[in-house]
């Protein structure tokens, strides 16, 4: 099975508070049960890297976590980058962009 990269945002609605960090913490803890999934918490989402079937299982559990904590409504957004011509990784995608941001080498050696 090949790896995919996914981005998931889980938002409980109607929590009675504008702060969601404790809810997000509960959602993130779900990933402790999925050690084969590499993940990175970002300010507005979580990025996942791993096998598609496993990621879909994890996202289902992440979606359910706020309900288990008492939420009555949850909005979950999922985006999947599934490239079949070569292996992709979170680090590889970032590295590819950073390489393109470097100034072009114009033949002048640095001293």
General description of the model:
17% of the residues are buried. The radius of gyration is 18 Å and the shape is elongated. 34% of the residues lie in helices and 27% in strands. Strand 2 (38-41) and strand 3 (46-51) form a beta hairpin. The protein is of the alpha+beta class and 111 residues long. It has 3 helices and 4 strands. It has a single domain (3-101), classed as Alpha-Beta Plaits. Helix 1 (21-29) crosses helix 2.
Which stretches of 5+ consecutive residues score pLDDT under 50?
none
Give the strand line-up of the largest sheet: 2-3-1-4
Return the CATH topology.
Alpha-Beta Plaits
Sheet having the most strands: 4 strands, antiparallel
In whole angstroms, the N-to-C terminal distance is 47 Å
What proportion of the residues is helical, as a percent range? 25-40%
Number of strands: 4
Coarse shape: elongated
Radius of gyration: 18 Å
Count the domains.
Answer: 1
Number of helices: 3
Indicate the CATH class: Alpha Beta
What value does the average pLDDT take? 92
Order of helices and strands: EHEEHEH
CATH architecture: 2-Layer Sandwich
């Amino acid at each position: 099975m090949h790896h995919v990269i996914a981005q998931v945002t889980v938002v409980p609605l109607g929590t009675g508070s504008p702060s969601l960090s404790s809810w997000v913490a509960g959602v993130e803890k779900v990933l402790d049960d999925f050690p084969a999934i590499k993940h990175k918490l970002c300010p507005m989402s979580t990025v996942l890297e791993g096998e598609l079937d496993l990621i879909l299982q994890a996202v289902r559990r992440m979606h359910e976590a706020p309900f288990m904590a008492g939420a009555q409504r949850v909005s979950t957004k999922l985006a999947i980058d599934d490239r079949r011509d070569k292996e992709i990784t979170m680090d590889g995608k970032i590295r590819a962009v950073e390489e393109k941001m470097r100034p072009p080498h114009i033949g002048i050696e640095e001293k």
